[in-house]
Amino acid sequence: MISKNMESALNHQIELEAYASQYYLAMASWCDSQGMEGAAEFLHAQSIEERGHMMRIFHFLSEVDGFAITPAIPQPPLEFKSIKEIFEKVYQHEQKVTASINKLLAICYKEDDYNTLNFLQWYVEEQREEENLARSILDKINLIGDGAQSLYFIDQEMKNILKMAQAKEAQEKA
Asked: How many C-beta atoms surround the C-beta of residue 6 within 10 A?
């Protein structure tokens, strides 16, 4: 059985993950409208991944006799200034999600909820990877630049990053 306090906190996390999925989908649409297919594909994949994160918590709550709430999601922004701004926002959002996971861990320790603590360990590792990926993409954008001619190279790099991530995921499943 899970405490009402932890149930509420996990439902807040569900909301954050759902918003991230929609946010990245809006970003993908913007990239697509700008002719940046690689970045759009990458952000579509990230959107799907974030929904998966949400669903893991949703199912966990059911397993521990909690009640998962389907969140109302605010409309994410639809316009962005540049690809650099998008990935700055991705990085900031991932940091926000990490901070939220850390708060969940603090509740686990306070309530001696080792079942949820064990469940959340996957998210700790996942968030380290997510922040590192966003930061490395920003580093590449800063290295390449985000001028008109550089956009092609950024877009190609996004395709490569997505292919590497998919290959790593396939290898981990094997």
From this structure: 20
Query: Over the chain (174 residues), what is each successive 10-residue block's mean pLDDT?
Result: 96 97 98 93 95 97 96 94 95 97 98 97 95 92 82 83 81 78
Are the beta carbons of 94 and 127 closer than 8 angstroms?
A: yes
Nearest residue to 76 via CA among 37, 14, 21: 21
- Non-local (6+) Cβ contacts of 73 within 8 A are 15, 18, 19, 22
Residue with tokens 């990230």: 46
Closest by CA to 65, choosing from 124, 113, 16, 15, is 113
The closest alpha carbon to 119, from 45, 63, 38, belongs to 63
Instruction: Tell me if residue 69 falls in helix, strand or coil.
Output: coil
Whether pTM exceeds 0.85 = yes
Contact 96, 16 (CB under 8 A): yes
CA gap 166, 116 in Å, rounded: 28
Q: Which domains does the chain have, with CATH numbers?
A: 4-173 (1.20.1260.10)
